[in-house]
Structures are given as structure tokens and as C-alpha cells.
């Protein structure tokens, strides 16, 4: 057991672990129960020590929080984008739940500066048979590519993944289209008006829009009329 794993175990929260088990049923790894702010604090300390960083990301993980920490550490790594992409190609196939996937994506703010280069990786992930590789790509497109330059390309790429029967992929697609509507309502609303999405994704997109604080009540009232 590494010193970092011992540190995670020292910061366990039993009640939080029980809560996490309920909302992350898809992981096969044991959940310790370390809260995200603490994980972020640990990541910021580890990244200062190159040896500790490389040792940790190259060792086999046992606990769910080790994967969360791994993702956060990749978000802290800003020295070389090519090396970071290599680290991601190695790490992503080991992701087995939505929490590790989404936290890693949210930490990778460096993507904003290397969109063209990262897009090459996303295209490969979208053609993967691994559900969390696909979700990783969709959530990344949602976080970093729904701007004017990449908006149409991102939407077109996600449309190509509508044939999945995986719950976590479909939920990420609904999240993507909800965000697309928030970003550019006039351009994205056709996905619902013209019923371009499968029923499950269509209705989940509407629900996510209704739950959002970034849309006015008038818009939410209209969206309710579009439910299938």
C-alpha cells in the first residue's frame, strides 16, 4: 500500500462512503468515502512532487478514490500536452463509473488551450466499445467545445452516438443537449421540436433543462409541452 493510499484511508468518511455507494452503483471498486474538496487538496500537494505523481499514476489502483485522485492529478498536470494525452489514453479505459469520468473531465481545464489536439483523442473515444470512453468524450465536448467555433461539429458528433442502449452514455447525451440548449437556444431547440432524439434522451434532456437554473421559467414551461 502506497503512502498516498494510506492518506486516503486516513481521510475516510463512513457516512459519505455509504452515500457514494448509493449514487455510484456502477463501480466495482471499494469506496473509502473521501470528499471531493479533500481529494483536490491532496492532488495539489502531490503534483508538487514529480516522483510521487509518476509513481501514483503508474501504480494499480484498488479504491474508487484512487481513480478519482488519478483524474484530478491529470487535471493538475500542465507540463506537456502530448504526455498528458498519453496519460489519458492509458487511464480512460480503466474508468468504470460516471463520477470518475465526470470529475476528470471537469479538472482538465487545460483542454481549452489545445482543443484541436484533444479532439483527435475524442474522435477515437467516440468510436470505442467502452461506455465510459464514449461518455468521457461526450462530457468533454459538452464542457469545452460548445462554443461558436466547435458548436456545430460537437452536436454532429454526439448525434452519431444516439444508437446506444447504455444508461450512462444516454444520460451524458441528455446532459450535452441540455447544455447545448442553454448555450444557444435558437440553434439547439430543434433537437426537441423536431424530435431528433430517442424518447429516453429526449425526455431526460427536457428534465435536465427544467432542473437547470440557467433557463427562464417561460422556457421551461414551453419545454414541458415537448415531452413525449
Helix-strand layout with pairing:
Blueprint lengths: L2 H8 L3 H10 L12 H11 L3 H9 L5 H13 L4 H11 L6 H10 L7 H12 L4 H14 L6 H9 L7 H17 L1 H4 L1 H4 L5 H13 L5 H8 L4
Describe the structure.
The chain is an all-alpha fold and 228 residues long. The chain has two domains: 1-113, no CATH class; 114-228, Serine Threonine Protein Phosphatase 5, Tetratricopeptide repeat. 67% of the residues lie in helices and 0% in strands. It has helices spanning 3-10, 14-23, 36-46, 50-58, 64-76, 81-91, 98-107, 115-126, 131-144, 151-159, 167-183, 185-188, 190-193, 199-211, 217-224. The protein is globular, with a radius of gyration of 19 Å. The mean pLDDT is 96.
Identify the notable features of this structure and list them briefly.
mainly alpha, 228 residues, Serine Threonine Protein Phosphatase 5, Tetratricopeptide repeat, 15 helices, 2 domains
CATH overall fold name of the largest domain: Serine Threonine Protein Phosphatase 5, Tetratricopeptide repeat
Shape, principal axes of CA atoms: globular
Instruction: Please provide the count of β strands.
Output: 0
CATH architecture level-2 label of the largest domain: Alpha Horseshoe
CA-based gyration radius: 19 Å
Major sheet: none
Number of domains: 2
Q: Look at the structure and give the mean pLDDT.
A: 96
**Unreliable stretches covering 5 or more consecutive residues:** none
Our measurement of the CA-to-CA distance between the termini, rounded to an integer number of angstroms, reads 52 Å
- The CATH class of the largest domain: Mainly Alpha
| Helix/strand class | mainly alpha
Write the element-wise H/E pattern from the N-terminal end onward.
HHHHHHHHHHHHHHH
In helices, the fraction of residues equals 55-70%
- The helix tally amounts to 15
- Beta strand %: under 5%
